[in-house]
Design brief:
Length: about 180
């Protein structure tokens, strides 16, 4: 269990490192913006596909529920945190694979975020780890929960494909925007 916690801490540091890299390499980020958006789309697709393939008995209802929850919450970090947590419960190799992909996504995604948004996303990323105390419930419903986790990246991927420019300001819902502005 200690490995799971350490792995998750390393993964969410990708958001902070991405912000620092974006801060120190502003001109390179401007020049490669279209490539960064393409990398984000590819990584989200791989994460969603990986979460869907691990348990073949995932109901489409859980994926639809994940998409609906994403449109309600409108923050991808809580879905990524839950994905890393649940993937590490499936097995170590799968957990490392999903964690690596989420780390890369957060590294690329954190480049343009403001510090308030980065701190808020880190807090949202850590919320799923409070579920560690109900591990028997999670193990029983792992396929359903992984389907919900896959729905978040699928919805975010759909948003990025149908919108040319996705700014970090527009990524949160009204509730979270008000919370970040305070």
């Amino acid at each position: 269990m200690e490995v799971v916690i350490m792995l998750n801490i390393l993964v969410f540091l990708g958001l902070i490192f991405g912000k620092l890299l974006g801060y120190f390499t502003k001109e390179e980020v401007k020049e490669g913006k279209k490539y960064f958006i393409l990398i984000e789309k590819i990584l989200l697709g791989i994460i969603a596909l990986g979460l869907l393939v691990v348990k073949l008995n995932i109901f489409s209802l859980s994926i639809i529920l994940g998409v609906l929850l994403f449109f309600l919450i409108r923050r991808i970090s809580i879905f990524l945190g839950l994905s890393v947590f649940l993937a590490s419960l499936v097995n170590v190799e799968f957990g490392l694979g999903i964690s690596s992909l989420v780390f890369l996504y957060l590294l690329v995604n954190g480049r343009e975020s403001k510090w308030k948004v980065v701190i808020f996303d880190v807090l949202l990323f850590l919320i799923p780890f409070s579920l560690i105390f109900v591990e028997s419930f999670i193990n029983t419903n792992l396929g359903f929960l992984l389907g919900i986790c896959a729905g978040g990246p699928v919805a975010q991927l759909g948003r990025t494909f149908f919108r040319k420019k996705v700014s970090p300001k527009k990524m949160g819902g009204n509730f979270f925007r008000k919370l970040i502005k305070k």
